[in-house]
Design a protein that fits this description.
1% strand, homodimer, Farnesyl Diphosphate Synthase, EC 2.5.1.10 (chains A, B), two-stranded antiparallel sheet, 17 helices
Chain lengths: 370, 370
């Protein structure tokens, strides 16, 4: 059920916490069920292609990839598999279906797998750079296999992805490969901006910078996934671009809400300790919005962020972000981005029935609780 | 002048030191001049394409790439450029010319630039993994910009390379992209094997393993470069495969000779201190051949390699590799590989005139002194 979003094309979301709980406002569970079915159908179609691509790797690299995707334990024994929600391949297939029906969806499966490989290549490398030790509730590849193997497995996944597209006989495959390659450059620039910002003081960062970073790091690949689906449906250039814009805007909405959850989310639902983002002094979107608000609360927040984290200050810090307008700004921005996303989608796919899969996914990513 | 090699198709190379000096035996200087002209002509054609690809990168990544290619100093001021010998793009163009004449060479320039981008992406990443601090007489990217930027610039160069091929309207571009992507996977497996061997004892490594590693790490991309050139000339599958085999075998010959130089090369010509490879306990091809020879000298070498390096032991170590047959084996292997390379080349390009560029390059890489 996507009516909650479609009902409010202006972007107003009734002041509801967009992601605090799956069953807020009544629309969540139904929308969640719909999206769950879309994701499950996509996984059933894409997983065999993904698995066969990874199985084609030489043993040493295959081992790292199988562990990363959750198909093998570190010791090489089979695992149940926990490769995340796989939103991106679902977007590829939903976009293909929206613009070309089931036939387009069927021929886009390989491209969907390629997009998921690209996403996972960036995760493998980001985890090395960010020294993140946990991903999908499992130890990250570099902690298990070392930096070199994690970097090399990521390199190989990028090559697999672009090689699969190049070898795909579909007439749109070359355009899709070029688009995915351009997106990889953008993802790299986004991650570069992110790591560079880590080294700067919190008051040296503008809201434009952090929005541009989030668009490059998160929006670009969601947009690219939708655009690739549209290409495989034989869509016009204008429709391909509209689908890209839809995915980009939905991606930014997703990031804004993710950042809100990172501060105000329920630890029982996020699985992360309360205030983890603030404790880590993360320059997330609501925090930068608060810091650049010119309010007294902004000055207080800057002072708190300049000092090392003390648990006793958590409540004060959280409140400062809120009082400086960081939370309200992020929620309004998210609603505004989602509204823009829906506008772009309606332009390319006026029939709500055809757009159903994309709408469910967009609502899912902006209304989740973890 | 490539007659020195062509004169001896059996592979015997008159017992000459293949790379101790450029002007040994008289054939070197002429062959070197020929190859220098081929390399220079290739660089003149490929550099603008390469430069424009790199200029298309977002600023932060472009800066790293420009420094890596020697076009900018670390502070961003322009530099004269020292991007290595650029053998691989020269092989692409020479292979295209050998099988399709000047017209094929002209349309293969973008593919040649793509292959050079792939090579440099692997260098950027290898330097991070191997903690190498100098490349082309300049500090490596990770020492200047940090690990994250070096990894991201490498990722972006791979994307640029495969994206350029995907967007190339030439009818062979998709096949070339698929081939380059498969080669990247092989390069990654080769580097993985190399880093894994670093962690093992010198007597635990077989000659087959180290030969397979060298083929994946060095032979694969030289073979791929030749194959891509053949594809752009519209060659038959058999000829494409023959050119790949030519490049692979020449690449192995190159590596064998490189390893010989690493032990017996003249420091005044190699630019590296005498015995640097032995001091670093490198498990190079002659060393592993010596260690696995079953001779008394092999036992002596194993004992020396098991202890930390002492300059006083250098002469004894060098002599042990030689007495265990490591040097003779490597030279015979190199000659044998070169003979196989020429056999493959003759199969695809029987006209020595047409094959001239490839012959010059093959002789150059196996007869160089640094």
């Amino acid at each position: 059920m996507t009516s909650a979003v479609r009902r409010n094309p202006s972007g107003a979301r009734d002041g509801r916490e967009p992601a605090g709980s799956r069953d807020d406002g009544g629309a969540g569970p139904a929308g969640g069920h719909e999206a769950a079915a879309v994701l499950e159908g996509s996984r059933a179609a894409v997983d065999p292609e993904l698995r066969s691509a990874i199985d084609s790797l030489p043993g040493s690299l295959r081992r790292v990839a199988l562990h990363h995707f959750g198909w093998e334990h570190a010791d090489g024994t089979p695992a149940a598999g926990n490769a995340g929600k796989a939103i991106r391949p679902a977007l590829v297939l939903a976009a293909a279906a929206a613009l070309g029906g089931p036939a387009a969806r069927a021929v886009a499966v390989r491209a969907a797998a390629a997009v998921e490989l690209v996403h996972n290549f960036t995760l493998l490398h980001d985890d090395v750079m960010d020294r993140d030790t946990t991903r999908r509730h499992r130890p990250t590849a570099w902690t298990v296999f070392g930096d070199a193997d994690a970097i090399l497995a990521g390199d190989a996944l990028q090559a697999l992805a672009l090689g699969m597209l190049a070898a795909d006989p579909h007439p749109a495959s070359a355009a899709a490969a070029a688009r995915v390659a351009a997106c990889v450059v953008e993802l790299c620039a986004g991650q570069q901006a992110d790591t560079a910002m880590e080294r700067r003081g919190p008051t040296e960062i503008t809201l434009e910078e952090v929005l541009a970073m989030a668009e490059a790091k998160t929006g670009a690949l969601l947009g690219c996934a939708c655009a690739v689906g549209a290409l495989y449906a034989g869509a016009t250039e204008a429709d391909v671009d509209a689908l890209d814009a839809f995915g980009r805007e939905a991606g930014l909405a997703f990031q804004l809400i993710d950042d809100v959850i990172g501060i105000w989310g329920d630890p029982r639902q996020t699985g992360k300790p309360a205030g983890a983002d603030l404790a880590a002094r993360k320059k997330s979107l609501p925090v930068v919005a608060a810091l650049t608000s010119g309010t007294p609360a902004a000055a207080e927040l800057a002072e708190l962020y300049a000092a090392p984290y003390r648990p006793a200050d958590l409540d004060r810090t959280t409140l400062a972000v809120e009082r400086a307008g960081g939370r309200a700004w992020a929620q309004e921005q998210a609603a505004d981005r989602m509204s823009r996303a829906l506008h772009e989608l309606t332009r390319a796919v006026p029939d709500p029935e055809a757009a159903g899969g994309l709408l469910s996914l967009a609502e899912f990513v902006t209304r989740r609780n973890a």
